[in-house]
Amino acid sequence: MERYPNVDWPSFAPSEHAVLLFTRTGGRLLLIHKKRGLGAGKVSAPGGRIEPGERAVDAAIRETTEELGITPHNPQECALLDFAFRDGFTLRVTVFLAESYTGTPRETDEAIPLWTRENDIPYGRMWEDDREWLPLVLSGRYVRGRFEFDGDAMLSSAIDVR
């Protein structure tokens, strides 16, 4: 993809900060069918905006509990992703991965739980960027990504891995 044709990434300052939290166990990944908000209708992970004064990891646990009724244990940060949308919206997302949880995933007014095998992730129903960075995260790598979107269409991407 063309690298950053319309974004001044060195001076990037996100207007919002959010989190995502993937829970995996036994070769399966817990995703959601998102019912409302940014990405409604897509498959994603539980997540949402960080509240003022809240740590990212605490926001990730809170959002997962609100959206699925489970409490993830010991989530580890695995990615930091910046998004710039053509309409001017900018977002920084801290991504976490948890290997265990308590509770039973249930449908809420925000999400429908979806277990999928890690080798059968429905990327065609997710944001375009997910297929670029999620496999790296699941292989144990830390990802730093930057993505430009026009609505649902990804215009540019770049990923650094460690």
Write up what this structure looks like:
Helices cover 14% and strands 44% of the residues. The protein is mainly beta. The protein has one domain: Nucleoside Triphosphate Pyrophosphohydrolase (Alpha-Beta Complex). Strands 1, 2, 3, 4, 6, 7, 9, 10 and 11 form a 9-stranded mixed sheet that branches. It has a two-stranded antiparallel ribbon with strand order 5-8. Strand 6 and strand 7 form a beta hairpin. It is globular. The mean pLDDT is 94.
SSE order, one letter for each helix or strand? EEEEHEEEEEHEE
Whole-number mean pLDDT: 94
Structural shape: globular
* Structure class: mainly beta
Q: What is the makeup of the main sheet?
A: 9 strands, mixed
What's the CATH class label? Alpha Beta
Helix content: 10-25%
What's the tally of helices?
2
List the helices and strands and how they pair.
Blueprint: E1 16-25, E2 28-34, E3 43-44, E4 47-49, H1 56-68, E5 71-73, E6 76-85, E7 90-98, E8 100-102, E9 111-117, H2 130-138, E10 143-150, E11 153-161
How is this structure best summarized?
This protein is 14% helix and 44% strand. By secondary structure, it is mainly beta. It has one domain (14-161): Alpha-Beta Complex (Nucleoside Triphosphate Pyrophosphohydrolase).
Can you give keywords for this protein?
14% helix; 11 strands; nine-stranded mixed sheet; 2 helices; Nucleoside Triphosphate Pyrophosphohydrolase; 162 residues
